[in-house]
Amino acid sequence: MAPKYLTGDHAAIDSFINQFELASLGIPSNPEEVFTSAYSSAVYIAGFLDASVRRNKVFVLGEAGIETELRSKGIQFIGGTDPSYRRDITAEDYKLIADGSLLDDTVGVVLVGLDLHINYLKLAIAYQYLIRGSIFLATNTDSTYPSNKTLFPGAGSISKPLVNMFNIPPIALGKPSQEMMDAIEGNFKLDRQKTCMVGDRLDTDIKFGIEGKLGGTLLVLTGVSKKGDWEHNDAAAIPAFYVDKLSDLRG
Q1: Binding site membership for Mg(2+): which residues?
Q2: 48 pLDDT exceeds 90?
Q3: 195-250: CATH superfamily
Q4: Per-residue confidence band for 197, with pLDDT thresholds at 50, 70 and 90
Q5: CATH architecture type of domain 38-172
Q6: Confidence class of residue 244 from pLDDT cuts 50, 70 and 90?
Q7: What is the DSSP annotation of 3-57?
Q8: Binding site membership for substrate: which residues?
Q9: Is the peptide bond before 239 cis (omega within 30 degrees of 0)?
């Protein structure tokens, strides 16, 4: 079986291949080999939400990649990249949010991903949907993500204010969520015992492989987690193997 690429990235699958890691690393791949957290979320939502349900719309805190994957599954959504949500909140907005006239009563899910234009208005609206009974989902709950040899706020930092307000964590659909593992298993027909999870983060990648009962886990020390992090008593997970960089596997 060819390698499969899993990512918590908010980009759509095609964008991830063409614009992000795989292309820049010179790794040949095609959409059938890639599974993003945005796609995982769309698959999960499509499993319980359909046109027969009155509240069948998703309020998105996220970017175009999430919208692309929701659209591919025929899921209706609002928010996201809509310019009308990318602005400061006004005094009138407070009134319209409070009386519900600024809300869509067909929204039944709040989906939070990496939103590069997060603001108070979006959070206020998302919170109102949650207290009105919408399901709280997150593409992933990574607090940070690595880029340009440093760390930046991740999708988990976008959902955190809502967690603080709502006092209930979202159902996470990226690594280490086993909902994602189940979706991957069904999509790729993989044999878990013959599968090794390779990643650079203990609390997502390695934990994902261990909790999914995969045949092995390999930590690569070029990302978030560093050598020895798993030796602490409160370590999120312990990898079966580790390498300084992927090229070390060439021997």
Answers
A1: 200
A2: no
A3: HAD superfamily/HAD-like (3.40.50.1000)
A4: very high
A5: 3-Layer(aba) Sandwich (3.40)
A6: very high
A7: --EEE---S-HHHHHHHSHHHHTT----GGGEEEHHHHHHHHHHHH--TTSSS-E
A8: 175
A9: no
